[in-house]
Structure formats: C-alpha cells, structure tokens
Design a protein that fits this description.
The chain is of the alpha/beta class and 265 residues long. The chain contains 10 helices and 11 strands. Strand 3, helix 2 and strand 4 form a beta-alpha-beta unit.
Length: 265
C-alpha cells in the first residue's frame, strides 16, 4: 500500500529512530513570537548554546500587540517586556525578525504564508497551538511547548513519535453561505473534541479542492479543536499559484524543481 502525504513527510525528516523510542525528527522552519520564546532562549543561555541554524527561524511580535490607535506604545509591562526580550534575542542571534515598523509584522501564522516561507513537504513548529494553519500548504506543522522551542533552537530537531493518520473526504461543493469555518465545525460536531486525538488529519475531496488557500488555512487551523496534532491538505495548483513570486518562494529554475518535488506528495 502506498504512503500518504503525512507518512512521506515523516519519513523524509526522521534523522534517527530506535525501536520503542521517539524519533529524532528534523524541523525545517520554526516560527517565533514574544510569548513562548523568552524562556527558550534562556535555556540556551544557561547552557552556553546558540541557535543551531538561524536560517530556519522566523520571528515576529503578534500576541502582545495593543489594539489602541497608537499600537506601537505598549502600556502593559509584562507584554512590553516580552516584546523587548524577543527583539533583543533576535538581534543578538541575527534571526529574521519582523518588528512593528518592518512592514511585514503580523499574525505569525499569516505572515509565514504571505511571505512564501510556508512550503509543501516541510516541517514547521511554533510555540502556539494553532500552528496547524500552515498545513493548508501541505506542510506538517504543529504547536510545541516552550522547552521544545529551546530544543529546536539548540539542535534543529525534536523528539517525536510517529502520529496516527486520518483522512477526511468532503464531497460536493459548499452551497452559497457555507464557509470553511462551517465545514470544519461540522466535522468537529461529528467526531467530537477528542475524535482525532493522536492523529494528523489529511483533508481531501472536492469541497476542499474548491477552497482558496485562506479557506484551507481556516480548516487546518481548527484541527486542534477535535484533538488532532495537526491537519493538512495535499498541495495542488492552487497552492503553487499562491506561493509563486512571494519573497521566500523559490525563483527561476529552483521554482520548477520545487514544484516537481511538491507534486511528489
């Protein structure tokens, strides 16, 4: 029996595996924000370590941003300290960091796709439960804890057990007034909040294929609400068209090679 996309991504990222133990699993991209990164950097500092590969890191401020008119002025001291700490750590280690006035600052799970940093077939982690949003692009992406953020900073890898997989096919085309959020909420109502515990869900079928990338992101974002570790959609022409020509998208011949590789999933 052939492997599904989840198994293919898993197999290409296992660095080492001993029977009965978690695999050493390679991470291609880690997204950082101000709330769950401070203690992770502190773990490195206490051990005299530096990030293993800053090219695989992308940071922004998004959780502690004021909603007032002057959004650059943070009055809450705890939030202000979080932002300043991330700024300091990013500058110290030469990490790509999108600050308030960068023009690219935004919600971490939105700027990844908008910048073209989210690609099919890669592994993505972030200290945030809704990291599964990036699964819309055919990436295996999931949230991790702060100590795991430190682990990825130091090694570029995580200890992970191979997840179970679940494929959900949505037949037909959504009627007018039925949105992506309705589709995923219906699934959650059918299987329950623990119905996908321990699984990564692959969303498939005509209804999913007819969705825009933003709609697929909505579906994958809520995978966590039914207990899944992550959710994803196999890449197709809609995926490739969205990524093409974005800042971090492959260019020229690299683009053609990338698309050929992505189609293998």
């Amino acid at each position: 029996m052939g492997k599904n996309i989840i198994e293919k991504i898993w197999d290409t990222h296992v660095v080492s595996q001993q029977e009965g133990h978690p695999a050493i699993f390679a991470i291609d991209l880690m997204l950082l924000h101000e709330v769950t990164s401070a203690q992770a950097f502190q773990l490195l500092e206490e051990r005299g370590l530096a990030p293993a590969d800053t090219g695989r890191l992308l940071a922004t401020v998004d959780h502690s941003i004021p909603t007032r008119k002057n959004r650059f002025q943070i009055f809450d001291e705890a939030a202000k300290n979080q932002v300043e700490t991330l700024r300091t750590n990013a500058n110290r280690h030469n990490i790509r960091f999108y600050d308030f006035e960068s023009g690219n600052q935004g919600i971490v799970h939105v700027i990844g796709p908008e910048l073209g940093a989210t690609h099919p077939g890669i592994t993505i982690v972030c200290g945030d439960s809704h990291t599964s949003t990036h699964g819309a692009f055919g990436a295996l992406s999931f949230g991790i804890g702060t100590s795991e953020v430190g682990h990825v900073l130091a090694t570029g890898c995580l200890l992970q057990r191979k997840p179970k997989t679940m494929r959900v096919n949505f037949r037909g085309t959504p009627r007018s007034g039925v949105y992506a959020k309705d589709v995923i909420l219906r699934l959650i109502s059918e299987i329950g909040i623990g119905g996908a515990n321990g699984h990564v869900i692959e969303y498939a079928g005509e209804a999913i294929r007819s969705m825009s990338m933003e709609e697929r992101m909505t579906v994958c974002n809520m995978s966590i609400e039914c207990g899944a570790r992550a959710g994803l959609v196999a890449p197709d022409e809609t995926t490739f068209a969205y990524i093409k020509n974005r800042p971090f998208a492959p260019k020229d011949e690299d683009w053609e090679r990338a698309v050929a590789y992505w189609k293998s999933f």
